Input
Amino acid sequence: MTGHAIVITAVFFAFLVAVAISICITYRKTSRVLKDNDHLANVVENLKEESEEHQKTLDELKEQLRTKDHVLKLQVETESLRENIKDTKDMTDDELRAWIEVQMMESRMFCDPELDVKTMAQKLGLTQKKIKQLLKDSTKYDRLYDYLTEKRVLYASELIKENPNWSMEAVSKEAGFVSRTTFQTEFKKHIGVTPAQYRQHTQTEVVRAKQAPDA
Output
């Protein structure tokens, strides 16, 4: 074998060794990366499981709080009913009617469009029969609807005065009317003008009051 052939053979052998070393290094790096990826995947999975467990615990705590709040609310309402019954049992019918007026205005319960005799009785701590009798004997209202409608109209008139930028739709809903059409009809029936006309009138009165010279 000539010297030239030996050199070529040596170079080729060195190349093979270098390739083999490179392959080994790459394999080790690849193995390390795969191992790290597996580790990261396990960490992510563990975190996911912990997160789900924490969320479950959080949901359970929220539910317990809601239940506790509901129980406390029921306790407060029950105590309030007991006080109402205690306070109202010796009242005359006229005193009861006046007392109911105060309760209605303070609680604004008439703003609930679904308020009926049963719910009203529960909130006031009275019987349905007693409420119906009080309304009937007042000679002013034929039905609970008439009583609640009057309260809603009067409250709506206050809202119109105090909130000139509110839409009539907003006023209607806030006062407890089931529809804007009913609101328009009942308002004109009780006040004598439409809600829009009433707003225009009240705004005119405000302007006049501002322009009036000081006494």
User: Anything to note?
Assistant: The mean pLDDT is 78. The chain is about 80% helix and 0% strand. Helices lie at 3-88, 93-107, 117-124, 128-137, 144-162, 168-175, 180-191, 195-211.
